[in-house]
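[job 4471] stage=fold_predict status=RUNNING
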Amino acid sequence: MTQTHLPGFHARSIDAGERLYRYHVYLPPQYDAGEKWPVILFLHGAGEVGYDTVKPLGVGIGTAIMR
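[job 4471] inference complete, writing structure tokens
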């Protein structure tokens, strides 16, 4: 998988046995892979469940980041 360092949200996935988990990673405009960065993990509520990975971006911290 090719990793990009362009700013914004990037769809990712991980295969864990028989299950594929999809998620998004946000890279800020000033991101530099050579530096250490903090991680914020947003656990969405039951109303944002889905396999498209886009629904959780429309609530909570996703909308705050996009603004």
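[job 4471] summary: The first helix runs from residue 61 to 66.
[job 4471] exit 0
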